[in-house]
DNA sequence: TATTGTTATACTCTATAACTATA
DNA sequence: TATAGTTATAGAGTATAACAATA
């Protein structure tokens, strides 16, 4: 039979990784997308919703819903930006930090499982190659 | 800054490839998903809708809609399976074959553009590595 | 005038449940 | 009883348009 298309491979690689990450994060009450936002907001420089949205390549209206969900779970907090009152500074709560601690380890383990069919060298190479294919985050 | 997560890289690699393939296929009046179905149905062995769905890892109800769309465009034809009247044999029409001829070249070019930041060796390696990460199609 | 956050809304993709017809 | 196709429907996930507050 013919080889699978690149699009098929990327789509299904994505699906499989999403399943593994989703299962790994379930005990923490968040999904992969919420984890990505939470991890990004755990930053030394204060980040507005728009900053975060640009970094993740999603729309600012989507970010509103993500931050809403994280705030409902008491994992992040909105506060007004001191110098520009149009902006929110969004930052993890104490609970958010604790959650993130465990969640990072869980996600690392899920990625490791996803890559377990590869040698360490090939796994690293996959990362390097993908980074060269993907436009760097804006901001 | 920290390195992007594997999930981010796979998602955005997918998005970029989809855009390129979508643009390449626009002149043929089909999108990437329809192309995948049409290319799969262009097979020496007759394929039912369920066969095709399993191969692409999508639901059979999704396949109904895809075949509907391709049939409306006169690119495929349903006919009853000679030995099992529960099944449809779905096969490209003459127009489907002609469309596929050009579309394959367009998609190959789009993939090449997607991979253009990589050496030929790295591009081949990406394929090999992804194939090892993705479960092979059922059937 | 432009930017940030927000809301309402709509669109795409996909799956689940229930039905029909065949086996 | 199980399978193939179909329909109706619902759920993610996402974006566009329009608005208020602020710059």
Structure characteristics:
MarR family transcriptional regulator (chains A, B), HTH_MarR-typ (chains A, B), DNA-binding transcription factor activity (chains A, B), mainly alpha, WH_DNA-bd_sf (chains A, B), MarR/SlyA-like (chains A, B), 139 residues, Arc Repressor Mutant, subunit A, homodimer, DNA-binding
Structure description:
Two copies of one chain form a homodimer. With 139 residues, chain A is mainly α. Chain A has a domain at 21-115: Arc Repressor Mutant, subunit A, CATH 1.10.10. The first copy, chain A, is 62% helix and 7% strand. Chain A contains six helices and two strands; from the N terminus they run ααααββαα. Chain A has a two-stranded antiparallel sheet with strand order 1-2. In chain A, helix 1 crosses helix 5 (94-114) and helix 2 packs across helix 4. Chain A starts with 5 loop residues before the first helix and ends in a 6-residue tail after the last helix. In chain A, 36% of the residues are buried. At the A-B interface, helix 1, helix 2, helix 5 and helix 6 of A face helix 1, helix 2, helix 5 and helix 6 of B. Chain A binds a DNA duplex (23 and 23 nucleotides) through residues 33, 48-50, 58-65, 81, 84-88. Chains A, B: InterPro entries: HTH_MarR-typ, MarR/SlyA-like, WH-like_DNA-bd_sf, WH_DNA-bd_sf. Chains A, B: Residues 3-135 form the HTH marR-type domain.
């Amino acid at each position: 039979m013919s080889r699978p298309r690149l699009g098929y491979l990327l789509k299904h690689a994505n699906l499989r990784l999403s399943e593994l990450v989703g299962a790994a994060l379930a005990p923490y009450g968040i999904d992969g997308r919420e984890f990505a936002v939470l991890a990004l907001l755990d930053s030394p420089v204060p980040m507005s919703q728009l900053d975060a949205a640009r970094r993740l390549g999603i729309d600012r209206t989507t970010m509103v819903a993500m931050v809403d969900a994280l705030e409902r779970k008491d994992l992040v907090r909105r506060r007004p930006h001191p110098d520009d009152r149009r902006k929110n500074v969004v930052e993890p709560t104490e609970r958010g930090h604790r959650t993130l601690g465990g969640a990072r380890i869980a996600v690392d383990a899920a990625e490791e499982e996803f890559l377990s069919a590869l040698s360490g060298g090939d796994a690293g190479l996959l990362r390097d190659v993908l980074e060269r294919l993907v436009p760097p985050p804006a901001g």
